[in-house]
Amino acid sequence: MININGKIIVSACLVGYNCKYNGGNNYHPAIAELVKKGDVILVCPEEMGGLPTPRPACEIRGGNGNDVLDGNARVVDINGRDVTAEFTKGSQKILEQALNNEVKTAVLKERSPSCGVNLIYDGTFKGIKKSGMGVLAALLDRHGVKLYSEEDSLP
Ligand code: SF4
Q: Is residue 16 very low, low, confident or very high in pLDDT (cuts 50, 70, 90)?
């Protein structure tokens, strides 16, 4: 059960914001209900890092979000452009918000190279999933924020 006491961070696409790479969203009714009950900070690390919407699909190449934070993997878009700096910048902005607001919990979009909690794509752009966190999820996890995806059980 998700503890919604205090502020929680939520991926904005899960409540209908059209910040997904293709200009759409990932609306999830149960998350939208959760947001109504809680004190929520809606975020999109890719937009907050300066990337436009729509934007080319991105994946982590050579590792996972933790590897990106350690400088051992890169985020690239489907055209081969390195967007590691934008991903890192947006995630750092959200970490500052989390620390300033004593955020203890985040609900993030599974399989995103930013927001994925348990799964991401493998960097080949062939739809192949692998275990691992996205960049934002890894950064929040390092600072003690409890992470859930929309696929975890919700209250
Ligand atoms: S970066 Fe996160 S919040 Fe933004 S569209 Fe992707 S999954 Fe949603």
A: very high
